[in-house]
Amino acid sequence: MSDVEAVVEGLMPELVADLKRLAAIPSIAFDGFDHGPVHEAYDLVVGLLRGAGVEQIERLDLPDTSPIITATVPGPPGAPTVLLYAHYDVQPAGDLAAWRTDPFTPTEIDGAIYGRGVADDKSNLIAHLGALRVLGGRPPVTLKIVFEGQEEWGSPLDTYPPDHPELFACDAMVIADMGNIEPGRPTFTTALRGDTELTVSVRTLPEPKHSGEYGGVAPDALIVLIHALATLHDAHGSVAVPGLQDDEWTGTAPIDEDEFRTMIGVEAGTPLFGTGTVADRLWSGPAITVVGMDVPPTAGAVLAVNPYARALINVRVHPRQSAAEAQAAVMDHLRAVTPFGLSLTVEPSDTGDGFEATTSGVAYEAARAALRCAWGSEPIEIGSGGAIPLVSGLHAAVPGAEVLLFGAEDMHPARGCVCVLGSGRPDRHRLSSR
Ligand SMILES: [Zn+2]
Fold first, then answer.
1. H/E element, 40
2. Which residues are tagged catalytic?
3. CA-based end-to-end distance of the chain
4. Can you tell me the mean pLDDT for 333-346?
5. Are 129 and 408 in contact (CB under 8 A)?
6. Could you tell me which of 303, 271, 305, 196 has the C-alpha nearest to residue 241?
7. What is the dihedral of CA 386, 388, 392, 397, to 10 degrees?
8. In this prediction, what percent of the chain has a pLDDT beyond 90?
9. What is the Å distance from ligand 1's center to 11 Cα?
10. Residue 190 confidence (pLDDT) above 60
11. Which phi and psi angles does 226 have, rounded to 5°?
12. Does 304 have pLDDT greater than 70?
């Protein structure tokens, strides 16, 4: 065991205790929740940083957001600068009946800690703290720390960095708000798909018309919409809209179709959408999902030809394609389809660009070596379907910096789920270090 490994082993009990203290605070920054605990968590984190030897701690207050902790730990003159990011707020607990343990009483079961935010993202914040303690407050690089308190609720910090690049200037940034594809398998997330929404609607009649008296001739808005939506995918379930970037995934591709079926809880042999590897489809291909429709519900439906129908469409975009460009491609497609000669109204909504990391720099090299040493296995590279707006903002502010996305939010329902985002499901953080 190396010196560093021995120091880490020695520090683990205290770090776990600190993680439990932090995770016991319901630091929910959502509207409608008491924000007192967010400030309590802020105070605790500032105290933990001070205890780890960080002296230059500042507080960044942006409008309508929880305070952001910024800090600097100077390294040797001329040393590179590494920015460490995490967030100290959490999702609400959701349906308490879905929890086996109280969400804000971190509880150890079979080598894992259960509790809201134990994984996302307090484990990663504590991992940064652990690194500071291991280095005794004297890192070989200059460290900049950015711990925010309103990541889960949407924060003005997402768009702040490009206007204040000097605050975030660094050679590499460690965005610790991700996890390993399975416990024990160190994982970099090297690509994030962008996303965009748009609304498509059609009006064919001023009001509903009786289906017996008018059906068969009167144009049905719902049928028109269904025909239009059906053109978004081909016979294999692949996205069929021209102009959407679609490449083969070049990182490791650790999920096969059977594993993916297990992940989403369907039976063996169930057909899946699309062609190519699962990674091609999940991480470097487009996806279009109809996430909502305004149509009459079956209960209480009258026997009438529908005059109006509307759908909300979510588009996941190749990491390197502009989300606005992808949105325009889908809008052009839907405007051109005109089922039965009838036009649709297509309206744009939000867009968020994706991100693709350059993985050939010295920071990646160092991180690979560290993860290989810590976990005893070769790190892999995956993509993620979820956009992280702050990453785009930081990359725009400091385009030359290496961006490393990894962390302790291990995720893989097929092989032991460790972190489940969203309401009603427990987070858990695995204690084992291998
Ligand atoms: Zn998070």
1. helix 36-51
2. 89, 151
3. 14
4. 98
5. no
6. 196
7. -160
8. 81
9. 24
10. yes
11. -60, -45
12. yes
Distance 130 CA to ligand 1 centre (A): 18
pLDDT tens-digit profile of 387-423? Answer: 777 898 999 999 999 999 999 887 644 333 343 333 3
Per-residue pLDDT of 354-371, as tens digits, reads 999 999 999 999 999 999
Strands 304-305 and 209-210: antiparallel
- Cα 173 to averaged position of ligand 1 atoms, centre (Å): 16
Convert the pLDDT of each residue in 108-142 to its tens digit.
Answer: 998 889 999 999 999 999 999 999 999 998 999 99
φ, ψ (nearest 5 deg) of residue 272 = -115, 160
How remote is the CA of residue 236 from the centroid of ligand 1, in Å?
34
Q: Does the pLDDT value for residue 431 go beyond 80?
A: no
Q: How far is CA 188 from CA 180, 201, 309, in A?
A: 7, 40, 42
CB-based burial label for 151 (10 Å; 0-12, 13-18, 19+): buried
Distance 270 CA to ligand 1 centre (A): 32
Residues, CB within 5 angstroms of ligand 1 (ion): 120-121, 177
What is the rounded CA–CA span in Å between residue 100 and residue 312?
Answer: 35
In the block, tokens 């929404």 appear at: 197
Read off the amino acid at residue 231. Answer: T
120 CA distance to ligand 1 centroid (A)? 5
Give the per-residue pLDDT at 388.
78
